C-alpha cells in the first residue's frame, strides 16, 4: 500500500488536487483560498506546493492530499486512496500478505453483486421495457448500474458462494438473511434479501457500492403473494458496516463535482427522481432518505455548496414534515429554496413528460419562506386563521434565520399580507423559543493548545515557526541557534523547553506560516529583531502584572517586607519598559 501512496504523491501536486475543489489565489510561493472547512470571509487557508501540504489558520485543519480528500469528500483513507489513484492513473496494489483488508472484501462482494444484477437485467425483457417506459435511457441505466434481482430464494447466495465468499460476508453486507421461521426445518435456512426486484445500487462518496434499494417487479407481485406477508414496494439494505444511510446522500459520488461547479445542489426524494434529473442534465442532484436530512448529510452538501434547492411534491403537510430538515440546513448556513412541481407529480414524472418543465421548476425555485407563505395562501385561509397558521409555521423559521436583515424582509412581507403592524410581528418573534440546533452558528472549531489569549503566546508561535522553518532549510540566511539562544535569554531555558514541546506538535502549520511571512524577505534580520523586541516587551508587561498582584496581596495582609520587595520590583520593570518605549 505504501508504494501506491508514494506513486500517487509523485504524480499529483497539492495545488492541483486542492485547486480542483477550491478557487486558489497566488500568494507569493503559496496559494490561498477561503477555507472549505469553516465559514470565513477573508481567506486563511494556505496551500504550499513546496511542502505539498495545506493549512488553515482559522480552524487549524491541515495535512496532505490524502487528508484533504478524506475531509472534503467525507471518505476514509481507503476511499481517498481510490479517488486519488484514479486521478493519478495509479493501480492500487495490495501488498498485505494476509490478503485484502476485511472491508475491502465486503466492497468486492457488493461490486460483484452489482454485476450479477446488471447481467440479470440484460436478460429480462419485461424489466427493460418497464425502465424504458419510465423514461430511463439505456446509457443512464449503465451509468447508475441499475440491475435486477431475479426471482428465487438463493440466486445471489449461490453466485457469491461460487465466487469464494463465505456466508458470514453475505450476512454482514445484508445481502443474505437468516430465515426466522424454521419450525419443522432442520438446520438454519438462508435466503437472498432482494428477490424479483429492480436494483438501484447506493454508493458512498468515493463511488463504492455499499447498499441497494430494490423496487418490487412486477408491481402486481405484492397482490399475488397473498399467502405470505405483505411485500413492500421498496426494500433497502439494512444498516451495515459499509452502509449508514444517515451519513449517505444518494448520487453524491456522481453529483459532488457538479454541485461545486454550479454552486447549488438539488435534493429529491426517490431513486428514480435522482436518476431522471441526472439524465435531464442536472447532475448536481442528490437524494436523501425520505424528507429527513441528517446533520451529517447537511455537512456533506455544505462542503460543496451553500445553496440547496429542495424538490419534493410540497403541499402544506409536506412542508411541515420537512420543516426540521429545512431549519437544520438553514442553521448550518445553507440557503434553502424550494422548487414548485405540478400538484401530485414527482420529479421523475415531470421530467418524463418534458425535461424543460423540470429545468424551469428549478430555475423558478423560491426561498423556502416565500414558498411556505404562498402555500398557506393557496389553502385559502384568511383572517385570524391565517395569522394562527403563520404564527405556527412561518415565524419559527424566520426567527431561525438569525440574520436581522433577512428577518426584516419577511417581517415586512408578513405585515403587508396580514395587515398587522411590523412591531407586533417583531414582538411575537422575540417571544418565540427555538430548538437549539436550528440557530445559525458560524463559529469555527478552535485548537486549545495553540490558541492563547496572550500576545506573547502568539509571538512565540511566530518565533518557533521561524526556528522550525530555518532548521528545515538546507541553506539558511540566519542561524536558528542564534534565535534559540536569544529566546532562552528572554524566557529562560526551562520555559524554552516547555514552549518548544507544546509547539512541536504543530510544527507543520507553524513552518508554513513562517514560510508564508518570511520567505524571500529582504529584511529578515530586522523582522527577527522586531519579533524579539515585542516578545521582550510582552514578557515585561506580564511580569509587571504579576508583580502588581503580589504587591496588592502584600498590602492586604500588611507584610511590610514583602511590600518593599515587590514595590522595588515594579519600579525596576517600569523603568525597563520605559526604556523600550523610547
Ligand atoms: Zn478553516
From TrEMBL:
<dbReference type="GO" id="GO:0006269">
    <property type="term" value="P:DNA replication, synthesis of primer"/>
</dbReference>
<protein>
    <recommendedName>
        <fullName>DNA primase</fullName>
        <ecNumber>2.7.7.101</ecNumber>
    </recommendedName>
</protein>
<dbReference type="GO" id="GO:0008270">
    <property type="term" value="F:zinc ion binding"/>
</dbReference>
<keyword id="KW-0240">DNA-directed RNA polymerase</keyword>
<dbReference type="InterPro" id="IPR037068">
    <property type="entry name" value="DNA_primase_core_N_sf"/>
</dbReference>
<keyword id="KW-0175">Coiled coil</keyword>
<dbReference type="Pfam" id="PF01807">
    <property type="entry name" value="Zn_ribbon_DnaG"/>
</dbReference>
<feature type="zinc finger region" description="CHC2-type">
    <location>
        <begin position="35"/>
        <end position="59"/>
    </location>
</feature>
<keyword id="KW-0460">Magnesium</keyword>
<dbReference type="GO" id="GO:0003677">
    <property type="term" value="F:DNA binding"/>
</dbReference>
<feature type="domain" description="Toprim">
    <location>
        <begin position="263"/>
        <end position="344"/>
    </location>
</feature>
<dbReference type="GO" id="GO:0003899">
    <property type="term" value="F:DNA-directed RNA polymerase activity"/>
</dbReference>
<comment type="function">
    <text>RNA polymerase that catalyzes the synthesis of short RNA molecules used as primers for DNA polymerase during DNA replication.</text>
</comment>
<dbReference type="InterPro" id="IPR034151">
    <property type="entry name" value="TOPRIM_DnaG_bac"/>
</dbReference>
<feature type="coiled-coil region">
    <location>
        <begin position="534"/>
        <end position="564"/>
    </location>
</feature>
<keyword id="KW-0235">DNA replication</keyword>
<dbReference type="InterPro" id="IPR006295">
    <property type="entry name" value="DNA_primase_DnaG"/>
</dbReference>
<dbReference type="InterPro" id="IPR002694">
    <property type="entry name" value="Znf_CHC2"/>
</dbReference>
<dbReference type="InterPro" id="IPR013264">
    <property type="entry name" value="DNAG_N"/>
</dbReference>
<keyword id="KW-0863">Zinc-finger</keyword>
<dbReference type="GO" id="GO:0000428">
    <property type="term" value="C:DNA-directed RNA polymerase complex"/>
</dbReference>
<keyword id="KW-0548">Nucleotidyltransferase</keyword>
<dbReference type="InterPro" id="IPR006171">
    <property type="entry name" value="TOPRIM_dom"/>
</dbReference>
<keyword id="KW-0862">Zinc</keyword>
<dbReference type="Pfam" id="PF13155">
    <property type="entry name" value="Toprim_2"/>
</dbReference>
<keyword id="KW-0639">Primosome</keyword>
<dbReference type="GO" id="GO:0005737">
    <property type="term" value="C:cytoplasm"/>
</dbReference>
<comment type="subunit">
    <text>Monomer. Interacts with DnaB.</text>
</comment>
<keyword id="KW-0479">Metal-binding</keyword>
<dbReference type="GO" id="GO:1990077">
    <property type="term" value="C:primosome complex"/>
</dbReference>
<comment type="similarity">
    <text>Belongs to the DnaG primase family.</text>
</comment>
<dbReference type="Pfam" id="PF08275">
    <property type="entry name" value="DNAG_N"/>
</dbReference>
<dbReference type="InterPro" id="IPR036977">
    <property type="entry name" value="DNA_primase_Znf_CHC2"/>
</dbReference>
<keyword id="KW-0808">Transferase</keyword>
<dbReference type="InterPro" id="IPR050219">
    <property type="entry name" value="DnaG_primase"/>
</dbReference>
<dbReference type="InterPro" id="IPR030846">
    <property type="entry name" value="DnaG_bac"/>
</dbReference>
<keyword id="KW-0804">Transcription</keyword>
<keyword id="KW-0238">DNA-binding</keyword>
Amino acid at each position: 500500500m505504501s508504494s501506491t501512496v508514494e506513486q500517487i504523491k509523485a504524480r499529483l501536486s497539492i495545488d492541483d488536487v486542492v485547486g480542483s475543489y477550491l478557487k486558489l489565489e497566488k500568494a507569493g510561493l503559496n496559494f490561498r483560498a477561503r477555507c472549505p472547512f469553516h465559514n470565513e470571509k477573508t481567506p486563511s487557508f494556505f496551500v504550499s506546493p513546496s511542502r505539498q501540504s495545506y493549512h488553515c489558520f482559522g480552524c487549524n485543519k491541515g495535512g496532505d492530499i490524502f487528508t484533504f480528500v478524506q475531509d472534503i469528500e467525507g471518505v476514509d483513507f481507503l476511499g481517498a486512496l481510490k479517488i486519488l489513484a484514479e486521478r493519478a492513473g495509479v493501480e492500487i496494489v495490495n501488498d498485505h500478505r494476509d490478503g485484502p483488508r476485511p472491508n475491502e472484501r465486503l466492497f468486492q462482494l457488493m461490486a460483484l453483486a452489482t454485476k450479477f444484477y446488471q447481467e440479470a437485467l440484460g436478460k429480462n425483457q419485461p424489466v427493460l421495457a418497464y425502465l424504458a417506459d419510465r423514461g430511463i435511457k439505456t446509457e443512464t441505466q449503465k451509468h447508475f448500474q441499475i440491475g435486477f434481482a431475479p426471482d428465487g430464494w438463493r440466486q445471489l447466495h449461490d453466485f457469491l458462494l461460487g465466487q469464494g465468499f463465505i456466508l458470514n460476508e453475505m450476512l454482514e453486507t445484508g445481502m443474505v438473511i437468516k430465515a426466522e421461521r424454521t419450525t419443522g426445518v432442520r438446520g438454519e435456512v438462508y435466503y437472498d434479501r432482494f428477490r424479483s426486484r429492480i436494483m438501484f445500487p447506493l454508493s458512498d462518496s468515493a463511488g463504492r457500492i455499499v447498499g441497494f434499494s430494490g423496487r418490487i417487479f412486477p408491481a402486481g407481485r405484492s397482490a399475488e403473494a397473498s399467502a405470505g406477508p405483505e411485500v413492500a414496494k421498496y426494500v433497502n439494505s439494512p444498516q451495515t458496516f459499509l452502509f449508514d444511510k444517515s451519513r449517505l446522500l444518494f448520487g453524491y459520488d456522481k453529483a459532488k463535482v457538479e454541485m461545486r461547479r454550479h454552486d447549488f445542489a438539488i435534493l429529491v426524494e426517490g431513486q428514480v427522481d435522482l436518476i431522471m434529473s441526472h439524465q435531464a442534465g442536472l447532475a448536481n442532484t442528490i437524494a436523501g432518505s425520505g424528507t429527513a436530512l441528517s446533520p451529517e448529510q447537511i455537512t456533506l452538501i455544505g462542503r460543496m455548496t451553500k445553496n440547496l434547492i429542495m424538490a419534493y411534491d410540497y403541499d402544506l403537510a409536506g412542508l411541515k414534515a420537512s420543516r426540521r430538515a429545512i431549519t437544520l440546513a438553514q442553521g448550518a448556513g445553507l440557503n434553502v429554496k424550494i422548487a414548485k412541481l405540478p400538484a401530485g407529480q414527482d420529479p421523475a414524472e415531470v421530467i418524463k413528460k418534458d425535461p424543460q418543465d423540470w429545468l424551469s421548476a428549478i430555475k423558478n425555485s423560491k426561498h423556502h419562506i416565500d414558498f411556505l407563505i404562498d402555500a398557506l395562501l393557496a389553502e385559502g385561509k384568511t383572517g385570524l386563521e391565517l395569522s394562527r397558521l403563520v404564527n405556527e409555521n412561518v415565524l419559527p423559521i424566520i426567527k431561525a434565520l438569525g440574520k436581522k436583515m433577512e428577518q426584516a424582509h419577511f417581517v415586512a412581507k408578513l405585515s403587508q399580507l396580514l395587515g398587522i403592524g411590523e412591531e407586533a410581528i417583531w414582538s411575537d418573534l422575540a417571544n418565540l423559543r427555538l430548538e437549539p440546533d436550528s440557530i445559525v452558528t458560524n463559529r469555527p472549531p478552535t485548537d486549545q493548545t495553540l490558541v492563547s489569549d496572550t500576545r506573547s503566546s502568539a509571538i512565540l508561535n511566530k518565533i518557533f515557526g521561524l526556528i522550525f522553518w530555518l532548521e528545515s532549510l538546507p541553506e539558511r540566511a540566519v542561524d536558528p541557534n542564534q534565535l534559540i539562544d536569544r529566546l532562552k535569554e528572554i524566557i529562560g531555558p526551562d520555559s524554552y523547553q516547555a514552549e518548544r514541546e507544546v509547539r512541536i506538535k504543530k510544527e507543520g502549520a507553524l513552518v508554513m506560516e513562517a514560510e508564508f511571512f518570511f520567505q524571500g524577505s529582504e529584511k529578515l534580520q530586522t523582522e527577527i529583531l522586531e519579533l524579539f523586541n515585542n516578545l521582550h516587551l510582552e514578557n515585561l508587561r506580564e511580569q509587571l502584572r504579576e508583580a502588581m498582584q503580589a504587591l496588592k496581596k502584600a498590602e492586604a495582609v500588611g507584610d511590610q517586607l514583602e511590600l518593599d520587595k515587590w514595590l522595588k520590583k515594579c519600579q525596576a520593570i517600569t523603568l525597563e519598559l520605559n526604556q523600550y518605549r523610547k
